[in-house]
Known about the structure:
By secondary structure, the chain is an alpha+beta fold. Helices cover 42% and strands 25% of the residues. The chain has a single domain (4-112), classed as Ribosome hibernation promotion factor-like (Double Stranded RNA Binding Domain). A four-stranded mixed beta sheet has the order 1-2-3-4, covered by helices on one side. A hairpin with a 2-residue loop joins strand 3 (56-63) and strand 4 (66-72). Helix 1 packs parallel to helix 2. It comes from Thalassolituus maritimus. This is Ribosomal subunit interface protein.
Amino acid sequence: MKGLEISFRDIEHSDAIEYQIREKASKLASRYDEITGIRAVVGLPHNHSQKGNIAHISLEVGLPGETVAITHDHHDKSEHENMYVALRDAFEKAQRKIGKIHNKRIDSKRRMH
């Protein structure tokens, strides 16, 4: 998809993770054609607790007139030690947020006519 930027922080680049992000971003963009771009940052910050490292995914989704930020930082969710689960959850959250904005925009357009 055009307008997709992917960065890795505190973790080595992974083709498999990048592929997953591209797939999920493409699916999201095909569902909402008003998306102008997506920026994904994948990180594995060092936690100083007894738990393993928890994946951190943040997304910025560009829409006309605004940017929707999704930060998915669950230090208490051990399932987010799995990068794929963290990615899935972040994109699901993005879809819900963008869906609400999309529906509000459609409702306001309907009221204007």
